[in-house]
Amino acid sequence: MRWIKIITLISFAIMISAQPLFAQRPPRIAYINAAKVFDGYHKTKEADQNLEKEGKKKNTERERLVKEINKLKDEVELLSQKARGKKETILNEKLRGLQDFDNEAKLSLQRKRNDMVKVILKEIDDVIKAYGSKNGFDIIMDSRVLLHANVELDISDDIVRELNKKR
Q1: Which pTM does this prediction carry?
Q2: Residue ranges of domains in the chain, CATH in brackets
């Protein structure tokens, strides 16, 4: 009987002394506004400018093709019925070429934008992870998944500053 009391006391003492080991600190949580971070990153702005320049080049080339087609249309209208056949064939080929150019230009710009976005999102993700580790955050979420959050938990500006330090 005496042993049972001693074992009970020892067990109770161990449980009381071990209690702080089981106590957990509350998790550190923050969130970012992904759109704000993406738009605030200098590489996003630079990439958008590069895509815009490329789009303008494509548009200039397209306008040249349209002028050629319009000139050819005017020539076709002035020709007799017999002479029109060959020019209309050329005109149709040019129209198909314009459609192909439009499709290829659109796809090319989309591919370049997708590649650019992929690289930028990877860089943003790396900075967020490093920032979270450095500052002891357990969880960093995107504001799009939150129904409500205290604005003091928003670290978007901090992330943008970290990203733009790398200039």
Answers
A1: 0.73
A2: 19-164 (3.30.910.20)
